[in-house]
């Protein structure tokens, strides 16, 4: 059963808001040549989507995690999503079912030889989580210590929803932090740099699109661009990660690659989840990005994400 | 509901024996470059496998069709297979469920720009239809007018099963015909040329592997190689098809391409089904291959196979 969030339970939760999709993962020895027939080593369906993955990793790291997002009602896919959230103890009581729409699906071809991940995503007709759906859900904000948004192409709705959280927090005196992820290299998402969030996670792809050649340039530039007091965090793959709060010094950490890289899919989602966890535990920004790189690095050495819960990471 | 085959029903059925799998079909504008993320136009699951497709096409062409094969028990996949056979009126009472094994799956990437079909197949642990499973199923041979085998890599089991059918036919005086398809370009399948079948369908890929440059050379060569009285049929894509009975003259037909080709997937299965139907109706070999090319060509102009039943084809 999913953990249910009740007000009598005074452990606060981390809410991740965004996509839940079905990933169809198939592993091949070599990337398939167009117009040929070949064999794969495995195929399986699993739950994906950045926000859903954030929630699962947070739960594996021992946090109380909640997911909010719009989901289609394809029977066996919806069952797989609910079963998966239940298995990991992620609360999905704020997930919104849209009858008559399919769950979006991504075909992921994992190439054993090169380690590449080729993904083809079908979004279908499922509506995005609009501002009106978000406010209509009447979240109980007293339950959360952190609210994280996956920045979507409908950036205006994400922006309005973040502003709404900020307004509720300020007016009611809640203590939760707000963060947003800018992942896609889409110029439209630049608007989310103006978000009234506390933390903005910015991908390497978006940073490069914005003209930054490395993570130190990226955090220096973005931290001047964002609102006062906002912290930008830039994970940069095998280079590590950097972060900087507007008006303060940058911090950075190298990456912590595993002895053998077996699966890099979801490393970005893992980084964000681990960083949020560390910051929830009052770690310094420097400690948080270092911890996040350690957890994301260890994840790349695991075939299954579940194994994360068996590893020990020190939060200094 | 599936048509059930009862002995009181004196319309005989065409039994197709071989694979039933799940095809995960996704259409893209351009073939995905390795290690990138892109969007697809659609994704859906459907029932595939040569023998399963043969059965469905035969039913769409108005024949009483039966399927025999081994199937895994992945819940929603097994449901999709049963629902699909039921929808098309294919009898699957001889389908053998193997608990604890997944249904094999094929990811098919259909490229709109080039018309290419790139397929990655995962077979998993599901056992092949062995000779002992085949005989253990105790088929009621009196129900069939034709028994068609999809030649599998386990050619010995296919060969023994064909021999068993031949023995039953000869000893009991049944009137059914026997055919086998050699599709994969695998040298192992050469042994199936010695099958005691009445008709052997041989793919262009296998023919080319055996050193034949065109369909007329292929039928000339193969018809000398097979047993006396056996007919070989070689569909050759956009060139048409040829056929020849050992000891007789070759016949051939050009292809009948549609005005616009929209989906060539399954054209080979359609050709075989249509050819069997025509031969069941006592068409000459020449008429049968011509009819098969007409139906397979028309199929390539249809987005959905279901539309086949709305078209009219004349069996001269």
UniProtKB/TrEMBL annotation, chains A, B:
Residues 13-300 form the Carbohydrate kinase PfkB domain. Pfam families: PfkB. InterPro entries: Ketohexokinase-related, PfkB_dom, Ribokinase-like. It comes from the Eukaryota. One of its GO terms (biological process) is phosphate-containing compound metabolic process. PANTHER family: KETOHEXOKINASE, PHOSPHOTRANSFERASE SYSTEM TRANSPORT PROTEIN. This is KHK. It comes from Bugula neritina (Brown bryozoan).
């Amino acid at each position: 059963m999913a953990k249910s969030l009740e007000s009598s339970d005074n452990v606060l939760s981390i809410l991740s808001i965004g996509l839940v999709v079905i990933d169809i993962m198939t592993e091949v020895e070599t990337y398939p040549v167009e117009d040929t027939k070949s064999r794969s080593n495995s195929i399986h369906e699993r739950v994906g989507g950045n926000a859903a993955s954030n929630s699962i990793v947070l739960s594996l790291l021992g946090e109380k995690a909640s997911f909010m997002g719009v989901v289609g009602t394809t029977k066996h896919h919806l069952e797989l999503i609910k079963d998966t959230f239940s298995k990991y103890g992620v609360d999905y009581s704020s997930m919104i079912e849209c009858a008559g729409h399919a769950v979006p699906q991504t075909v992921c071809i994992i190439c054993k030889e090169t380690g590449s991940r080729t993904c083809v995503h079908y979004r279908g007709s499922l509506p995005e989580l609009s501002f009106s759906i978000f406010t209509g859900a009447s979240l109980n904000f007293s339950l959360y210590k952190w609210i994280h948004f996956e920045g979507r192409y409908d950036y205006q709705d994400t922006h309005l929803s973040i502003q709404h959280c900020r307004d509720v927090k300020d007016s009611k005196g809640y203590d939760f932090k707000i963060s947003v992820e800018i992942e896609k290299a889409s110029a439209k998402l630049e608007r989310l740099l103006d978000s009234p969030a506390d933390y903005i996670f910015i991908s390497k792809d978006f940073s490069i699109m914005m003209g930054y050649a490395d993570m130190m340039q990226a955090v220096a530039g973005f931290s001047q661009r964002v609102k006062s007091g906002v912290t930008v965090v830039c994970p940069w793959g095998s280079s590590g990660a950097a972060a900087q709060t507007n008006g303060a010094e940058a911090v950075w950490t190298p990456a912590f690659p595993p002895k053998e890289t077996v699966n890099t899919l979801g490393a970005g989602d893992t980084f964000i989840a681990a960083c949020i966890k560390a910051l929830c535990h009052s770690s310094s920004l420097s400690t948080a990005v270092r911890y996040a790189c350690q957890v994301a690095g260890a994840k790349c050495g695991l075939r299954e994400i579940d194994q994360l819960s068996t590893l020990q990471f020190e939060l200094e």
